[in-house]
Amino acid sequence: MLRNSSSDEDDGQAPTISSNTSGRSPPSPIVQQKNQPVISGNHIAKHGGLVPPHTGDYGPLSPSTLPRTPNNVSTSYTQPLTRDGSNTFATQRTSPNLNSSGQESPSLANKLHSSQLTQSLQQPQTDDGSRTSAYDATSLKSNDSSLSDQQQPHPSSISNTRHPSTDSTMKYRIQQQQLQPSPLTNHIPNTASSSTTTSSGIPLDRIPSPSPSLISEREREENEKLERELEQKRKRIQIYVFVCRCISCPFNSKQSSDMARKHLKITQQQYTLIKDRFHAFLNGKTHIEADEAFSNAVRSYYEIFLKSERIVKMVQSGGCCSDDFRDVFKINIEKRVRSLPDIDSLKISKDTVVTLWMNKYDAIYRGQDQDQDNLNRRASKINYSSGSAELIMSKEQLYDMFQNILTIKKFEHQMIYNSAQLDNNDEQAATIRRELDGRMKQAESLQRQRGLLPRFVHKEMDSLFVDELKKTINDLMSNLESLPVRGGAEQKPLRPKRGTHGRNGSGGGGSNSSGAHSSSNKSLLVDGGDSEAEPGLSKLAFVLNFNINITVKEVKGLKSVPTNRVVYCTMTVEGGETYRTEHAEAGKPVWESLAEFPTNQILPIVKVKLYMENYSILHLEDIKLGKVTLQIDPTFNKTNWWTDMIKSKSTATDDLKVKLDVRMEKPQNLKMCGWCYARGKNVWKSWKKRYYALVQVSQYCFAMCSYREKKSEPTEMMPLEGYTVDYAAPDQGLVLDDAKYFFKAVREGDIVTFATNEENERHGWVQALYRATGQSHKPIPPQTTKQQQTGQTANKDTTDSDRTEKLGFDEYIQSDPCKFDHHDLFKYLQTSTLDFRLNDPYCSLGWLSPGQSYVLEEYCARYGVRHCLRHLYYLSDLLDRAEQNFMIDPQLLHYSYVYCASHVSGNGQDSNIATISVEEKDRFNDIKERLRQFLEQQVTNFRFAFPFGRPDGALKATLSLLERVLAKDISTPISRDEIRHFIRKCLENAAYINYTRVSEHAKIEETVYNSDDSPRKKIDDLIHLGELCIELLQQDEEHYNEAFKQYQDLLIEHEEIFWSLFAVDMEHVIDQQPVESWDSTLKNGRFHQQLRDTFAPLVVRYVDLMESCIAQSIHKGFEKENWKSRTRGCATSEDMLWRLDALQCFIRDLHWPDEIFGEHLEKRLKQMASDMIEACAKRVCRHFEVWIKKGGLMGGTGTDYLLPSECCVMINVILDCKSQALKLCALNSGDLHQYHTKIDEYLEKILSEMSKSLILKLVAVMDTALKKLSRYDEGSFFAPILSLTKPVNEVGQAYVAFVNTNLEQIRQKISDELFTLNLFEEWYRQQMHLVWTWLGERTEISLHPYQLKKQVSALSNNYLFMVFCLIMVIE
């Protein structure tokens, strides 16, 4: 956690280091990572007692800091992460030499010859052997670092990456040995005191010297520590070399300009200043006018937000910016303003009030010295913008930034820049070509030696991995090939054909291409008779475009021409147009005329002529006074050049000279040109002088061409693919006066010998051809006899190279990138970049800047870092920083995690990478578990991880990421129940944590559970605790309700658990109160008043919501009701009655202290129950009328009719409502039957109507049966006919069956027996009445036997029916 340097708080993590400390210091994480032997007191006071992190703090070590012992000789290796072909370490490195003056050696670690090493080991020690190594902390910091002393990095960023590489199958992966750091220092006790005696009385005049074993152990630890520091320094320099190459010549990525700009973060000093400004406003020490409402809003903002401990920690974590402060205040005042009632007399809207308040807030935030503060902020922003990570950065800015990231000093960068020729695009392109060819050869060797491959999750991925490598390298070659080569002809040249996997013929050290590609490497001849032309290349590809600029300035020596005559000059390039200058008098022939001539000739002829105007009528042409003819080449460049003119007859006696500026601009694809001697086997077969040019057609196609005068196309040319160039000894048979210095281009079956007149010219040709061929062997120029005698080098490049080699940088520049474990290097680079980013002035939340992302992307693409491992390293670093209390954006974690999860599951976003290594899978599983634990902690501590909902949207993004992490794989999302169970568990723990911290803040344990405090004080403390709890839950609703929108019920459970914890303390306090204290202290006192004022609106609102909810459930429930029988009624009715009863029990259990308000609530609930039951009865009655008509044939009046069970359920619903109405609708005070009598009468009416409808339906069946019997009456038309059929008693039997089934249906389905008996009695009475009426109508006629038989059956059944009813009554 970042601590303010002026703060007095001590978190106990940084050890106290004193100058008087003796002996071994206890191990400390900070000191161990820093590896500093001594930390001065001034440095500790300057930085607040905190040691900066190890990343980016080590510069070149001073030799004076080493103990002058033979053990100073280091035995560490040169390249800590490289191996040669036999998997052994490269050459050995030594520590810096010590000169006699004790000053710092210019080299980082000079190599020692064996003789010097032996001499140093045999040299006796002359200095004090007890001398210890002491470093000043400031000497290890880069002098060019842009971070000031006030901007100290976070101390927690000291720790290294948590999980080292675990892939044991990577043969080129070098495991770094983790060594324990040495103690801070070993001090010898002071011997200046008086003599002491031992227990035997023997005086001790001095303390004996330490034993030799202790001294040797101390020196060994110091040497080991020095070696580790040197190894880290070497590693950083090697990484910086690779980074510089990525910056100097990028060909895979570009800087993004659409990334969201980050705001400046608030530092601890700024936070203190902001609090002081708001405190001054509240104390009336500012000139800002404000009303009472605004002052109350500011006071609430100051007390709740600015003074919050959570905001202090957020500022220390570096995740707080000015927009966060402003947004919280805006949310607060918007809530206040919106809650105010509208005042018609004020002609101002609430939005205007919010705007005015925000303007006043800005004035307070900026302070009184607003203008000066703005100037300071603007100045600091401008100063940082030179290295600003939020803008598109130039190469120089990127160099400076990564110097600070990797703690590279300026002179080290300059040596690397000059020696690596970072400003030479041709050299960088050649370096890329050599790197890609080396990677291709490495891929082919992996294909042959499968043991060097990493382990994959499937065996089949071994061959697929090699194909992926080759495809990736071919893509890089295509990217490099797509880089434009400007300056060529109009026609786009065709690239030469190569092998399947790119350039296979760029071997190193003089190796040649394979014979399969020999046909494509043959040269092109103008005559075309001696060799085959390479397909795809034409002469037009080597036609160059030049611009010749000629300026005629002055002519002198015109003595024979009158001074008043007009003269002028003409300029022409042979084969082109002619230009002329302005007129000038012969006495002063001065011009400033510039002529530009485009041409395709590499050796053009330039002519400049001097004329005098002829005024004679008979002469048609002007008089020519002189001329100059020049043959120039692309190297010709002369300014203010006086040259003699060829005189004519009229100026034979004059000494004419002309002053010219002549310059021939060469195109960028012309890399080298000049006059050379050459002879080869297939091309340039004769040893003679020709004009040669090295022409680049594309990034992979170069050719050596010879040209003639006035010709634009080459006479002969030789493609350089497969050739290796090197210096050569002079051939005595070919040495001429202008052919002294030799070099050769060698290929299998061909040797071409070249010779130049000057040494520098030969060196330039060799370097240009070395870059063009892409060979790995770098030619070393031989020293001449004169140079050996004088000790001078050939040229500036050789001087820089020697100086670089002397200072120890040459091995880093010349090292082969293919022999490094770039995953480990990139991991270190990315970690250092993240630490630098988290400590810059911007609130980045872990997001890298566009420039940093751009360089890291280029590094990954160029050196083959797998994207999944890159994101896994990044996730590990982000989790480490998050665990160290840095604020990290969960969206950044989400992005990297999804990429890794997709790759590991086989659904990667990169179609070129389908292999999954064991290391990636193991790291991903480890990261997934760490991420799950981290997210669980974040959700559990959401109030402290995201204080006041800041950063905006972070908690919502965390919950979204949590769903991803809890899923089994990327294609199978987690079920809703599982994620809800996980979040419920987190919120339960959050309730306990939040209440515990609130209790600690209120010191409830010291007061409520203290037996010495009075009951009155305990009540006051409990009320204060309740106010804090209410304030906490209000903040949760205000700032976190949107994030938990999908889990509102879980958030409600969280609040209920929170209040249940409060109830425990409240019950404890109430139990401690005396019996008489209720009437004297609590009853109708402050406690009751607080309850009334706080919960009365909430209770009313809750009752309103429940009424609306119950009414809606009745409306929707009966529309979808299936009328299945339940315990007492249907599902909808039972739910309605349960809700009404639960609501009344809840309100009753409140025991509301205000009697008037309590009676009001009771009446309202009883009225609500009456209204709901009435609405239920109305809907049931309507459904009953519909269902009673269903069942049976003939409209439901046949003997097959069966009363629907749904009708019985509806009757049960009304009966249940009637039985519950007494409890739900009867008042406990006042008029007992005010609402119950009304609803009871209504339900009785409904039951009566339902009973009548049911009996009418059942009696209608008997009426139908009697109508059938009427057809047998005497005198009717159908009686004789029906008598002939000899009818049986089927009608009587059917009716008996009808009565039995319906009796059983009613008895089993209707729950109220009294209602059932009344129903049976009424049914029996109406049946008897119907039979009596039917028989009374037939007293005068005789009954048919069939009619008589049916009546007897019916009457007997009615008798049995009556007996059954009596039995039920008796029971």
Automatic annotation (TrEMBL):
Keywords: Calcium, Cytoplasmic vesicle, Exocytosis, Lipid-binding, Membrane, Metal-binding, Synapse, Transport. Pfam families: C2_CAPS, MUN, PH. Its main location: membrane. Residues 1-223, 484-530, 776-805 are annotated as: Disordered. The keyword Lipid metabolism does not apply. SMART domains: DUF1041, PH. The keyword Flavoprotein does not apply. Residues 114-126, 513-523, 783-793 have a biased composition (Low complexity). This is Calcium-dependent secretion activator. It comes from Didymodactylos carnosus.
